[in-house]
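Hi Y.,

Following your request, here is the sequence exactly as I used it, all 377 residues.
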Amino acid sequence: MHHLDCRGFGCPVSVGMLILLLCAGGAEAFHRSGVANCTSCHVMHETRDGNPVVGVDGALLLGLSPSDVCLNCHADGDRSVFGGTPLAPPPELGAGNFIFLIEDQINDDPRPSAPSIAGHHAGHSIVAPGYGLAADPDHLTAPGGTFPSSEMGCTSCHDPHGNTNFRMLHGVGPVQGGLFDFIHPAPLAEGLPVDLPGVMETSVSHTAYRGGMSWWCANCHDEFHDRVGDQIFEHEFNEGIGGDERDQYNIYDGDLNPAGGSALTSYLVQVPFEDPASTTDKTSGPGSGARVMCLTCHRAHATSAPGSTRWDMRVARLGLDGQVSGSLPLPNPYGDPNQKQLCLKCHDEYHAFNSPLSCFTCHSHSRTPDSGYGLSP
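Below is the corresponding structure, written out as C-alpha cells. Let me know if you'd prefer a different format.
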C-alpha cells in the first residue's frame, strides 16, 4: 500500500500509518458506518498530531482529491484498482484498473499512419493528482453526455459513505453534492467478494450481471444511447441477444474449435452478458432472457486498449496486442496467438468471411475514428 508521502507530497508518516490500519478491515464494513471509519477519509482540522495534513479541502479530506482518498486504500494489494505499473496490474475483479491511464501509448494499430493514443483514452480519466491522474484533456464532458470531466472521480459512480447497491453505485438522485443528477437506477448485479485475498474473476467465478447496466451508464453517456442511427452508436446496447447470436456464443470455443463448444460451459468472462437468472458461478451461455450491454465489450474503469475495451479492437489477431504500443497485452482466453477478435463469440460472419483485418476496419461507433473513442484500426 502507498502511504500519503509515497507520491512526493510530504505527508507525515503518522497519517499514512493511520490509513493503513483503518483500511485493513473489509471494504463493505468500512463503508457502512463501522466504528471510527470517518477518520480514514476525513480530519477534523488541518493538522494531526501537530503535523500539517497536505491536501485537505473544504470536505476535510485526507488527500488532494476525493479519488486520492479512495486510492489511499484501493491503489495496491487485494481489491485494488490501480497498481504499481501498467505492465503488471493487480488481479482483475471485473472493472479494470486505472493504472493504464498513465500509459504513454496504447494504440496497437499496425498501420504506419496510425496515430499515437495516450493512456487517458484507456478508460474513465479520474482526477487523482497524487497518483498522476488528471482530467481528460480531449473531452470537457463525458462522451455523449454533459458530466464535467474535471470532476470525474471514484465518487462520481460510487457512494463513498456506502449504500446497498451493487458496488455501492449511485442510484437515482444527486451525486457529488448535487453536481449532477442520475435519472437511472443502479444496475442489478452481484460481484465477487472484495475482502478475500487473491480473488480473481474467471469464467467459473465472475460478476453476475442481471439487468440495468446500460441504462445506468446512460446517466452520463446518454447520447451514445439516444442517437442510434447516425453512427454515434452502431452496436445494440440494451437488446435481447438474438437466437443466431446465442447459438454462436454457445458453440464457439475459439478459432481452433469454432463449432465444438458446449452451451453448458460456454460462458466467457471476456464477453459477459446480462441475464436475470445469472449467478457468480454460472458457466452456461446466454438463454432467451440474456441481453447485450455496455460491459459486454467494455470495462468500467480502464484497460490497456482505447475505449476501455475488453479486447483490443484495433488488432486483427489477439497475439498482436501490445506489440506496437508496448502496452500490456489483454488476456487471450483461447491462448492461440492467431485468435481473431472476440466479436466472434457472438458473430460468426467475421469467421466465415475469414478477413485478415480487424472488425473495426469497417465498423466504428464514432464519427471520429482516430480520437481514441472511435475504434477503427
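Residues 360 and 376 are 5 Å apart (CA to CA).

Thanks again,
Q.
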